[in-house]
Write a structure and sequence with these properties.
Keywords: Signal. This protein has helices at residues 57-61, 68-82, and strands spanning 21-22, 29-30. It has 100 residues and is mainly alpha-helical. The chain has a two-stranded antiparallel sheet with strand order 1-2. The protein starts with 20 loop residues before the first strand and ends in an 18-residue tail after the last helix. Bound molecules: zinc ion.
Length: 100
């Protein structure tokens, strides 16, 4: 007994619009129908200010380093090379400590 499989592909066009709403707490830009509090829990979550990256990373990121162009073109590859899962530790060992 043979079975006939009918597959109908429906192409949906979804328009989500522009990011026109701004959170009054964290100033995140959001789409029109995003609920309040999705970004910062209505001001309950406050992230620390991002510090400037140390050199040479900052120069590579802001295009003041001669290698910046190559770095920015390759940053996705670099991220893939160095991606890893997070890991935990139960003991902090100082390099200067004597381990017996
Ligand atoms: Zn917010």
């Amino acid at each position: 007994m043979s079975q006939i499989l009918n597959i109908t592909l429906i192409t949906l066009k979804v328009t989500i619009g522009a990011m026109v709403k701004e959170c009054p707490h964290c100033h995140a830009l959001k789409f029109k129908n995003e609920p309040a509090g999705i970004c910062c829990a209505s001001g309950k979550v406050q992230l620390p200010v991002i510090e400037t990256s140390p050199e040479p990373m900052n120069g590579l990121l802001i295009d003041t380093d001669p290698d910046s162009n190559l770095f920015l073109k390759s940053i996705h590859t670099f991220n893939l090379c160095f991606q890893m899962t997070s890991f935990g530790a139960t003991q902090i060992v100082n390099n200067n400590a004597t381990n017996g």
